[in-house]
Structure formats: C-alpha cells, structure tokens
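Consider the tokenized backbone below.
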C-alpha cells in the first residue's frame, strides 16, 4: 500500500531542481517549493510550484509555511525535504512539533550539530578509524600565539558553516588555500573580525587536482540501516569564491572497502536519511581522507538518480510505502555534469578521463539535472542557457 503524498521542498538551487526532477520522473508529480528569492534555477518550472519568501529560512516563517501547507493538504502525507543546510537544521529542530501529516526524515538536532560541526565530526572519525587530513583546531582565544604542527600549503575553513555565513565580509570565501602562516593569521583576522565566534579548522593541503576528489551519498532508512550508497569520482569542481568545491563533473565508480567504512559509522550512529561526504585521495599515503559530512542529499544528488537510485524513491520507499525498504542499487556507470561539454573537456586535464567522458556521452549515459524534456519552456530554456554560459566566464577567470 502507498499513501497519497506530496513533496514540500525548501531552497532554490540545483539541489532542489534535482530532487523535484526525481519526483517527477518517478511519480509524475509536481513538487511544492519555498526559497528565499524569485530568481535562480527553480523559476519558470513546470515540475515545481515555486514560491519566494526572504524569511523562509527563519524559524517563525519556516514553521508558518509548513503548517499552512500541511493544512491545505490535510488528506495527504507531506514529505518535508530541506535542500540547504539552514532548512535541514530547521526541519530537524522542529520535527517533533510538525503537523501530524508531515514527515521530516532527519536525525535529531543534537546529533546533527555534532556531525556538521567539523571539529566534532573529526573526533568521531578518530573513534571509527576513518582517515581525515592533518588538522589543527584554532579557537578565537588563541589570538596570534599558536604554532601549526605541519607545513603549508594550508586549507582554512570554519567549523560551523551555518554561523560563518551569518557574518559576511568583503572577499569572504567558502574555503581558503594559503601558503604561509602569516597568510593564515590574516584570514583568521578577517573571519573573526566579521563576528564569527566558533572554532576554525586549519588543515594540511592534500596535493592533487579536482580528479582526486570523491563524493559519497548514502541513504539510511528510519531504522538506521544503510539502504543506498553511491560513490562518485569528481573530475571537475567550480572555483569561484562562494562556489569553490561545488561539483561540476562526476563519473560514478565502485569502491566497496571505502563504502563499508562509512556504512559502519552511519549504522553505529543509528543515522537516518541522506548523508553526503566529501573525500579526497591522498597519494602520499594512498588513503582516502574525508573532509566533512552534509546531513542531507548533496547539491549534486542527481548523479545518484542517474546511476540507478532515484533519490525521491529513497524517501518514498522508506517513509510512504508500508513494509521494509529494500536495498537500492546505484552502480550504473553514468556521467553527471552541470557545465557545458566544452568547459568539461577543456578543464578536465587527464586524457583517460576525457576518453571515458566521450564514451559515456556516445552511449547516452550522461545527465544534466537542469535539462529535462518536460520542463523546457522557452523562458526556462533561456534561463538555463544563461546559467550554463556563465561557466565559460567563471572558469576563465578562476581556473585559467
């Protein structure tokens, strides 16, 4: 038996488009979406009913929107899905106070805070013997009097990403890469000068270009059992200040040993819902080292759908259908890209990967979540064309 359900998504980016497309492909239904602004890839869509509210990511407004929607769909089960960190945090914090017909498929807020806080996450990695980069945890009270236990180049990023973006400043970046200790101190001054209070992670830079990156996406059912794992080999990332690290090109691959490590971690934690891990291969000691966990499906989640495990189906099989959820296979070889093909082939600087990309394109095993036949009105096609075209300029500027 399957209950009547309706997806309610929050955010307004490629993550939302990918999840909405998955629901439409699998079930032929339109997702209802709330984001902050009347712009972006969700606008002018035939598979999304998109609304904008600048306070959508604030507690009072968020719950008001959820309660009103639940009341309007009182005869349906509402699947509440966050597609951005602030929305996922709100869904988790309020999941026990939701209307009866709303399902928020997330872990409790205390566990979520432990996992998304990088300092605490690395403590868990130590416990479960999962490799991560050499790390120094800087705290504000240390001032300028500290010594790093490793040499540069250095990677600098906030432990608390949500708090970090609440304190903007000129030149703010998602992640910093610098060469000297003086550079590190300068970045720390900028971060704390803007009002940020939590700790900052300083790491030894792992050598290697974008092709050394991996992304692992998992789904755990409401009993805490991992029911889907999909590993992607990242071939290209974005390099703009706010978008650095966002995936641009991914090919799925298999590595059972690596996946088993994270499966053990998730099941010991009784984790539920989607998780997304950023990982890099370190050629120096031949290990895969994790950077962070996102307690949601990632921005690039459509690579999972393209590989055989529709992300919307994960939610439905677990939370809507009655009976135990079966393990979902996501091993189909597939090429995912959100940049023009010319950009991909120009900036993926490895012949073997370009040849693999060519082969998958010829076989029709390539997806772009933004390009979908049933969702191609003239206005939307123009919007997507502009979105794609900006990558030529951005890569030329930031990755010459």
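A designed sequence for it:
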């Amino acid at each position: 038996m399957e209950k009547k359900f309706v997806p309610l998504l929050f955010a307004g980016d490629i993550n939302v488009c990918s999840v909405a497309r998955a629901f439409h492909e699998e079930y032929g239904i339109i997702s209802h979406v709330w984001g902050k602004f009347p712009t972006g890839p969700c606008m002018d869509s035939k598979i999304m009913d998109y609304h904008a509210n600048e306070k959508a990511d604030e507690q009072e407004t968020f719950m008001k929107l959820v309660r009103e929607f639940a009341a309007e769909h009182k005869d349906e089960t509402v699947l509440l899905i966050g597609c951005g960190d602030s929305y996922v945090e709100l869904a988790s914090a309020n999941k026990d106070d939701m209307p009866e017909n709303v399902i928020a498929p997330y872990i409790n807020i205390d566990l979520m805070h432990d996992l998304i806080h990088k300092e605490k996450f690395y403590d868990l990695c130590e416990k479960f013997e999962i490799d991560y980069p050499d790390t120094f945890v800087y705290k504000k009270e240390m001032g300028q009097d500290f010594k790093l236990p490793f040499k540069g180049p250095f990677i600098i990023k906030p432990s608390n990403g949500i708090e970090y973006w609440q304190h903007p400043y000129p030149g703010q970046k998602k992640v910093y890469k610098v060469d000297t200790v003086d550079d590190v101190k300068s970045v720390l001054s900028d971060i704390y000068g803007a009002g940020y209070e939590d700790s900052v992670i300083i790491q030894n830079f792992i050598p290697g270009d974008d092709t050394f990156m991996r992304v692992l996406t998992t789904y755990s059912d409401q009993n805490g059992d991992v029911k889907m794992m999909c590993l992607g080999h990242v071939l290209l990332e974005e390099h703009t200040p706010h978008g650095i690290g966002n995936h641009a090109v991914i090919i799925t691959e298999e590595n059972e040993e690596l996946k088993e490590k994270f499966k053990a971690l998730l099941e010991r934690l009784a984790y539920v819902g989607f998780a997304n891990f950023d990982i890099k291969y370190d050629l120096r000691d031949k290990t895969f080292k994790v950077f962070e966990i996102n307690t949601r499906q990632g921005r690039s989640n459509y690579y999972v759908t393209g590989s055989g495990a529709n992300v919307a189906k994960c939610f439905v099989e677990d939370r809507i259908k009655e009976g135990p959820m079966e393990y979902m296979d996501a091993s189909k070889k597939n090429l995912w890209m959100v940049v023009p093909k010319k950009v991909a082939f120009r900036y993926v600087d490895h012949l073997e990967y370009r040849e693999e990309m060519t082969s998958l394109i010829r076989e029709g095993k390539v997806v772009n979540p933004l390009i979908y036949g049933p969702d191609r009105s003239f206005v939307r096609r123009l919007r997507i064309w502009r979105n794609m075209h900006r990558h030529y300029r951005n890569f030329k500027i930031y990755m010459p």
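The two ends are 55 Å apart (CA to CA).
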